[in-house]
């Protein structure tokens, strides 16, 4: 009986190893596809602003800007918009490089006044059509010690997603801060498309997008949340998501007090 039992255990062990290896290979392959998608999407998106900039510049040089100030201003505004787009793309590529090399610069800890922080984050998005950001705050100590730029980026990324993934005309986002004995809790809640349970464990992975594989109707590279996660690791925070398809998503951050 013993040899039989032993061979059975061996077979079980070998099958287990093969299964684990197989999962690793599949995961690597998936990451590779997502990376390739990222490169082809970003290359595609770089082309348009560069082409527009080249065309407007040539037009400005040809008709001689000073002769028609109105037209000149229109062209310059167009160029400014395209330059902003390029800046956004470059920021994304830089975020990727940082993620690849795990070399996020360490900022010093500084006091952040929560009402000011919320104001700054809201101001970035308040000009966008249909966007309504409601803030609420229940804190005793309004000043917290953290890396300010990192915390601003984290909240901005979450609000940006909340807006991006709310297709309705009115995009309502609730941004709440509460204070607890050991930590501050930040909640970003939207009423958008939501995320299926099956996808939720992966959305913080690099390049993971719920509709991946081709050009998404919502632009993105699947880097925002992984950047958020790595920043939170550095400043001592955690993040979790609660979401239901068709109802919206709630991202909750708990930032340890220093
Ligand atoms: P990106 O938005 O650039 O695709 P992220 O890393 O920020 O990348 O998000 C990963 C994926 O998680 C998104 O592609 C999207 O499918 C999903 N997601 C993130 N935030 C939300 C949200 N607020 N509502 C619905 N889906 C979301």
Automatic annotation (TrEMBL):
Keywords: Kinase, Membrane, Phosphoprotein, Transferase, Transmembrane, Transmembrane helix, Two-component regulatory system. The keyword Glycoprotein does not apply. Its EC number is 2.7.13.3. The keyword Transmembrane helix applies. Coiled coil: none annotated. The chain crosses the membrane at residues 1-25. Signal peptide: none annotated. It catalyses: ATP + protein L-histidine = ADP + protein N-phospho-L-histidine. Residues 41-258 form the Histidine kinase domain. This is histidine kinase. The chain holds residues 214 to 471 of 471 of the full protein.
């Amino acid at each position: 009986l013993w040899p039989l039992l032993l061979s059975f255990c061996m077979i079980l062990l070998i099958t287990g190893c093969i299964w684990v290896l197989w999962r690793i290979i599949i995961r690597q392959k998936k990451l590779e596809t997502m990376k390739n998608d990222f490169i082809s999407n970003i290359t595609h998106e770089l082309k348009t602003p560069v082409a527009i900039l080249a065309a407007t510049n040539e037009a400005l040089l040809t008709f001689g800007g000073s002769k028609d100030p109105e037209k000149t201003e229109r062209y310059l505004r167009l160029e400014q918009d395209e330059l902003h787009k390029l800046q956004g793309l470059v920021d994304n590529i830089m975020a990727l490089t940082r993620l690849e090399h795990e070399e996020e610069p360490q900022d010093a800890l500084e006091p952040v006044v929560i009402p000011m922080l919320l104001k700054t984050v809201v101001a970035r998005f308040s000009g966008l059509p249909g966007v309504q950001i409601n803030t609420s705050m229940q804190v005793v100590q309004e000043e917290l010690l953290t890396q300010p730029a990192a915390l601003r980026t984290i909240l901005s990324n979450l609000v940006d997603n909340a807006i991006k993934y709310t297709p309705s005309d009115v995009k309502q986002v609730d941004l709440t801060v509460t204070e607890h004995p050991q930590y501050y809790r930040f909640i970003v809640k939207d009423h958008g498309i939501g995320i299926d349970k099956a996808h939720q464990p992966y959305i913080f992975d690099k390049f993971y997008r719920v509709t991946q594989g081709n050009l998404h109707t919502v632009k993105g590279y699947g880097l925002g949340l992984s950047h958020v996660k790595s920043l939170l690791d550095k400043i001592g925070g955690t993040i979790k998501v609660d979401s239901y398809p068709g109802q919206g998503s709630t991202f909750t951050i708990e930032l340890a007090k220093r």
